[in-house]
Amino acid sequence: MTPTEMDSRIVRYGDLQPCKTAFIDAHTPGSDQKENFTIIGGGVSESPDQHVHIGIPHGFNIGAAGQPPRVTNSLHDHHTAEAFFVLSGKWRFFWGRWGDAGEVTLEEGDIINIPTGIFRGFENIGTDYGMIMAILGGDDAGGGVMWAPQVIENAAEHGLILGENGKLYDTKRQQKLPEGVAPMPLMSDEELAKRPEPTTADVLPNHVARYWDLMALADKKPAKVIGENGILRDKPGFEVDFITRGSATEAKHSHKYPSVLMPMRGHWKVTWDGGSSTIAPGDTMSVPENLAHSAVPSMTGEASLYHIVATGDPAGLTWKG
């Protein structure tokens, strides 16, 4: 693969195109300043305004959320796995029917594999604009988003209606539901009662890994963060590894599925049969299946990188109860 061809599979942080109308809470006070990014895959946006940077199927989706301080992403759920690592800032993740079942604070480099089957949200509690990077299981990203009933009700009060077709209609723009399309129904009390309400103790430590722990664990060899034999043991349809300067190697390797490299700290030189390129924190690089490649830090100082690859397993549920 030529450098030009590979460049089309690299999304630079500075080139990310945000969408501020991606989801139903785009007008809701407290959530109306968030930005959503679809980096790899179709994503789960409910708006036609969302830009897809790389549409090639990988077996998972890569996205991101950028939020100013004290801006919240509303309570929602997916049918498949949703994992985040914090690229910048300080974030509070919370979950449950009303968002009060449990919570955890994550800082830069920390990663959370959020259990499915429960509503979850997150808030930037830092002092500056922050960014979290997301991995969603499956090529169809779980078939969309399921919102807590109060999120849909609050959105309607501010002009946004979600159709049962999964698309948003903005009454402030004189939009209305098309003929034959009903509003998205609210979950029934019976459906809501079936959803678990795990406490913080239930979720920790099986779904959260801390950056500095990973730095120590990956000092000599890459650490398996999410996977059947990972620190966060799961089979969500993808695996996540963590690599540091000490565990990086110039020996090339390949995968039978596309893989993704996402630096957390430092600049990384990626070499493949046909060329090389350097990626930095916030960049996302897609490596084609069966392409031999390596990644090593190209500068001195702290260096860490998240590596994601599909496994071919069904993008199934993660909550074990």
From TrEMBL:
It comes from Planktomarina temperata RCA23. Gene3D superfamilies: Jelly Rolls. InterPro entries: Cupin_2, RmlC-like_jellyroll, RmlC_Cupin_sf. This is Cupin type-2 domain-containing protein. Residues 72-132 form the Cupin type-2 domain.
